[in-house]
From TrEMBL, chains A, B:
One cellular component term from this protein's GO annotations in UniProt: membrane
Region forming the signal peptide: none
Protein's name according to its UniProt entry: MtN3 and saliva related transmembrane protein
Molecular function via GO: sugar transmembrane transporter activity
Gene3D superfamilies in alphabetical order: 1.20.1280.290
Lineage: Bacteria, Pseudomonadati, Bacteroidota, Sphingobacteriia, Sphingobacteriales
Organism of origin: Pedobacter africanus
InterPro entries: SemiSWEET, SWEET_rpt
TM annotation in the entry: 36-54, 60-79
Pfam families: MtN3_slv
Keyword Transmembrane helix (UniProt): yes
Length: 90, 90
């Protein structure tokens, strides 16, 4: 693997993993009212487009980090849906 | 401009602009205690690395959207610093 690819992967890990603290916070507190629906839907759409873009250029850092990011953002969206239902019940 | 470059730019606008709702919310409410410092520092580092990566591949969508994202994340970090001081004073 070329050094520039490693740098791309590190870049991708930084920008993808930034949602992890938010995800941990949401799971701990079991609430996500402060988090915007639109934000995560737009992010997921963006990740899907980046995966397509990376695929067309055979760019491993773009593809791999956006798949990772897509999974994290989907988990976040799932948490938002899950904890919203819980709040409504109580 | 090739259609794949336009697609890359759209992807970048989606993933970069996702921070705008958070920024607007923070400016409106004048508080950012729920927002993680580490998250934005890691994001800014990631953007800087992506700009370098994009530069080495002459990839316009990567460079331009990460410059945009870097500016937004820096603004967010500035807001967090600004509103934290305000809260301490009152």
């Amino acid at each position: 693997m070329e050094s520039i690819q490693i740098l791309g992967l590190v870049a991708g890990i930084c920008t993808s993993s930034s949602v992890i603290p938010q995800l941990v916070k949401t799971i701990k507190e079991k609430k996500a009212s402060d988090v915007s629906w639109i934000m995560f839907i737009v992010l997921i759409l963006g990740n899907a487009l980046w995966i397509y873009y990376g695929g067309s250029k055979s760019d491993i850092p773009i593809i791999s980090t956006n798949i990772f990011s897509l999974l994290l953002n989907t988990a976040m969206l799932f948490c938002k849906w899950k904890y919203r239902k819980k709040t409504n019940k109580t």
